[in-house]
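User: Is it possible to get a 3D structure for a protein together with its bound compound? The compound here is ISJ. I've pasted both below.
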Amino acid sequence: MTISEEIKIQPIAQVINNAVAFGKKEGGAVAVWRIPGEDDIQLIVDFSAELKPTSDPLETKASGFVFAPFETSSDAYLVKADLHINLGSHKITTRPDYNVSTKTEKFLNFLEKEKATKAVASDIKISDTTGDKDKFIQLVSTSVKAIQEGKFQKVVPSRKKEITFDRPLNVGDNFLRLAKAYPSAFISLVFVPQAGVWMGATPELLISVKDNVFKSVALAGTQKYEEGTSLSNVAWTQKEIEEQALVGRYIINCFKKIRLREFEELGPKTVVAGNLLHLKTEYKVDMVATNFPDLGEIMLKLLHPTSAICGMPLEPAREFLIKHEHYDRKYFAGYLGPANFDGSTQLYVNLRCMHIEDNKATVFAGAGVTEDSQPEKEWTETEIKMNTLLNIIR
Ligand SMILES: C=C(O[C@@H]1C=C(C(=O)O)C=C[C@H]1O)C(=O)O
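Assistant: Yes, that's possible. Here is the predicted structure of the complex:
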């Protein structure tokens, strides 16, 4: 089945807007994404009347898009690829065991006919965060104190910020703006009825499984990136080096738990993530040679939430955040991405993201705190992380 001419001439932003509008109106779930370094944008729709939380192991999951929250006890969803549109090649495919329903037809008609708003916001208001700043600085100080008392080595407190627009945010247009601005990020837009609309541009891979090769990365340490800076001249402080090394150690500890000794380690090296620089180490495992056919699922369970977004050791850091952070992260710092899709699974940590509710959006950011953290600097770090989205959306 190939896409009809009518849809072909629709601007991509319009197709994305209409798909989300359809999901909201008819009760379907939608996921749109762009893999780092690729040009094509993928869009899938799950026509289930009621999307149920998923707990199936990764390997047995139907082809689709995973959307999981930070809290492992909260509901994760799989948006099944009942219908898939490659917005680059305009090719439509349906799930092999899927009976093309009247809903599919209705959806395709909707894409052609409905006209969602094309305008973008001209007036964006950022809520006053003066009080938030004091609270976050206090939270970082409490974190440093807990580290000094030996409760844990690292913790990643976070905060949120609300912004309002003078009209409902044009998600399709803004998705494309993000994809263009950040070619090396994983760009996503998800609508799940139980979770709402989320959009983001994350630099952090959690796990990938492709051609029997498992990959994960340790990404941490943050500084502002000035366009044109040569990466070989970038210097990192002891605090940032240690902070990122802890994330690497956390991953290696997970390998140790399952007695996996054969892995490749590449890095750390400095990488650009939009307006920021991070330190990154890559880990690679041959799943055939090591005889770990289910490594994706095993590592996903062990890794999430990693010490890049929660802390180390995990449990005391998690308890600390539950007690002191005072808000629900929901899907921020959860994970998301295509699973068993086109021969691979690629799940990313949901960072540099926002929850969109018509004229309002909530952006989130955290900062890795160690014994050497300076609260004011960590505050600034969360501000520039939020700017990854705020600099682009309109
Ligand atoms: C927590 C975030 O980012 C994570 C924390 C980092 C840090 O503390 O330096 C860097 C990259 C991410 O692993 C975020 O973007 O909100």
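DSSP finds nine helices and 20 strands in the chain. The two ends are 36 Å apart (CA to CA).
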